[in-house]
Task: structure prediction
Amino acid sequence: MRLNDCDPGFKHQIAAEPGGAGIRVCFGCAACSARCPVGANRPEYDPRRIIRAALLGQREEVLASPLIWLCSSCYTCGEVCPQGVRFTDVLTAIKNLAAREGHAPPSARITAELLAKQGRLLEITEFENEKRAELGLPPVEQRPSDFQSILGIAPQEQDAGEGA
Amino acid sequence: MKALLFLGCTVPVRNLNYELSARKVCQALGVELVDDPALACCGYPLKGSDQGHALVIAARALAQARAHGLPLVALCSACAGTLAEAEHHLAHDPIAAEAVNKELEPLGLRYEPGVKATHLMRFLLNEVGVEAIQAKMTKSLEGFSFAPHYGCHYLKPSEVLGGLEDPENPQSLARLIAATGAEAVNHPRLKDCCGGGVLGADEELAGSLAGAKLAELDALGVTAMVMVCPFCNVMFEGQQKAIAKRMDTKFKVPVVYLTQLLGLGLGLSPDEVGLKLNRVKPKELIKAFKE
Ligand code: SF4
Ligand code: SF4
Result:
């Protein structure tokens, strides 16, 4: 590690994100790491190590690391932290920063596009509604316009609009 | 008793057995589920990369529930958790709530604190109660043993749940299983995460999380594993074959939704609770309950 690559402002930037403030009170006990199921399977994934690197200001290493996307969001770390750090939320803050700098996996962009196109993750076609009708279930609809407005993604030409 | 049903993205497309049995069980218990086709995604899928927009999407659902004047009940633990977390966050942070409302205004919606958003199982536990549910049972599932899979988002974060249940020692699903007359099995990996949260990023990792639990339950020989979440279901039922193959072993652990069990106990037939649609079928159970 080269010290002049460190960014002492990184932890403040994380703390300013929703859910990120907990990073300030971490005292490095590794209770989170001890119970993390992902770490148990992948020793290179270590919540405490991620939080220490962030506190040290290793901005680029943390944001560009593929490891930050391996959290399964099980919330175990936060339940056992003696300092009340919600590591899952701190990591979400870190991932959000990473995404803004272009480090998100492609699935993140695809998810947003699907929501803007369909208003839901999985497409609803006649086929789905026929299957539902056979079981006596009411039809479901796609109403993407609210999602386009929220996400600021304009509908695409070919398959625009209130598909139903 | 009425509640607004939050189906989410996955259940109405991939888990019709869950939806069907949930609706039938509610009907049998006198709970009226109201549908609103404008409800869709809870925002969870966006959270990792864009929690700002994820929160607005969750708040949109909360605002819709408020317009109906009804509590919001979800079948998916990720939906229920996301909506409850959003309510918890926004109710305690008026500045965030104002920011969200700016985004909701063009949609003609407004978030106000006080919307109850919860998992259907918690709603049934709190509003109907285990004793009342048990009192309506007409068929006993005695002799069968089930392993409840609580899943992470059904139990945590504990502050969002408001002390309803200790995530280190969960009981609620076991109590509902016991209400059918069946045995609820406790085992060392009871609280293990399904791995679904990381399936998109690393299939092998996700599979090893679910695989350890499946192997343990296979060795225990339970009638079935019991779920309350379609994401956990993807791992334990949908991925089961692939996981066994990767572990170079063979196991077949039947997987059912808790609403399917409750439905059988309430006198519904295996078809009425959609057991035909289960991929790893609980054969003993189907045999015992078919007329
Ligand atoms: S358990 Fe809490 S205080 Fe300890 S290392 Fe993890 S986040 Fe830091
Ligand atoms: S939420 Fe993520 S970091 Fe925390 S214990 Fe679970 S997998 Fe590990």
